[in-house]
Amino acid sequence: MSVGPPAPGAGGRDAVGGHEGSGGPGRRADLAAALDDLRRRVGGACSAAGRDPAAVRVVVTTKTFPATDVLHLAALGVRDVGEAREQEARAKREEVLAAGGGEELRWHFLGRLQRNKAGAVSAWAHLVHSVDSARLADALGRGAERAGRELPVLVQVDLDGEEGDAARGGAPAGAVPALADHVAGVPGLRLAGLMAVAPREADPAAAFAALAALAARVRADHPGADVLSAGMSEDLEEAVAAGATHLRVGRAILGGRPPLR
Ligand SMILES: *Cc1c(COP(=O)(O)O)cnc(C)c1O
């Protein structure tokens, strides 16, 4: 699994240094133990599915958790972190870089994204998982072009069709192939694959199998779209079995977090 070994010289208590309380060495040890458990869990899921653990990347979802946690994670070998709110993510990333840590971190954006925040996200995101409309794709593409970069993005698939406050974003499955075609043609963007959150009420294995079939259909037209971002703390085994390349795991590593709103 690409959570990976600690970088040379990055381990030990001194890499973060000086922080007390939740930022201190006790927190580092707790995160190290949780990462070990998670690596074992992902390893077991890969063995059961006959998959190479190196092909499954864990994006540690650090939303609501402080920059000190991100610094601990980086020192413990984590290379991918995920955030769900633009302002929080940008401030945290700046704090991490200012502290002299995490230069090699890839910052993923996973949340619902308003078009007026798209330009900001295009400047720093390694991969945007949550493109669910052509207009959002266009806004991200414009931002990426302004930033002089190519931004890889995933089309988010809505697997449960909830509306209003319960909705977690995503395009309806039937609209995904056309949206993927659109994204592939937007200057500044690269269509990298699909993402989904398991439905609340249904069996995640069945939902992820449907997602994998949709991903295969998109890949037939866009062979480079080989990322499948699926699976969270509670359903990562089902996601690995369905072929997920990226797992987004927060609580299983960082512990409980307060509700987002
Ligand atoms: C928060 C979040 C996750 C991680 O969820 P956990 O239950 O903490 O593992 C995954 N994906 C998305 C889109 C999220 O917003």
Sequence of secondary-structure elements: HEHEHEHEHEEHEHEHEH
**What count of helical segments does DSSP give?**
9
The domain tally reads 1
Instruction: Give the overall shape.
Output: globular
For the sheet with most strands, the description reads: 9 strands, parallel
Summary tags:
261 residues, TIM Barrel, 9-stranded parallel sheet, 9 helices, 41% helix, binds pyridoxal-5'-phosphate
Your description of this structure?
There is one protein chain. This protein is α/β, with parallel strands linked by helices. The protein has one domain: TIM Barrel. The protein has helices spanning 25-49, 67-75, 86-98, 115-124, 134-146, 176-184, 204-221, 236-241, 251-254, and strands at residues 57-61, 80-83, 106-109, 127-131, 151-158, 171-172, 189-196, 227-229, 246-249. Strands 1, 2, 3, 4, 5, 6, 7, 8 and 9 form a nine-stranded parallel sheet that branches. Helix 3 (86-98) links the parallel strand 2 and strand 3 (106-109). Helix 4 (115-124) packs across helix 5 (134-146) and helix 6 crosses helix 7 (204-221). It is globular and about 50 Å long. It starts with 24 loop residues before the first helix and ends in a 7-residue tail after the last helix. Pyridoxal-5'-phosphate is lined by residues 61, 63, 84, 110-111, 197, 232-233, 248-252.
